[in-house]
Amino acid sequence: MACNIDHSIEDVMNKLESQKNFLPEGIFKEL
């Protein structure tokens, strides 16, 4: 279970990292 959770978090972080190029920085400051 823990392995899958860690992988999911890593996957989400990777998606956020790639989306950061398209979204305004203001959105990330609010998050």
Task: Describe this structure as you would to a colleague.
By secondary structure, the protein is an all-alpha fold. It has helices at residues 2-19, 25-30. It comes from Bacillus cereus. This is Group-specific protein.
Task: Give me a quick take on this structure.
This protein has 31 residues and is an all-alpha fold.
List keywords for this structure.
2 helices; 31 residues; mainly alpha; single chain; Group-specific protein
**Helix fraction?**
over 70%
* Secondary structure tally, helices: 2
Low-pLDDT ranges: none
Report the principal-axis shape.
Answer: elongated
Strand content: under 5%
Radius of gyration: 12 Å
What is the first-to-last residue Cα distance? 27 Å
The biggest beta sheet reads: none
Q: Tally of extended strands? A: 0
Order of helices and strands: HH
Estimated structural class: mainly alpha
Summarize model confidence as the mean pLDDT: 72
Organism: Bacillus cereus
Protein name: Group-specific protein
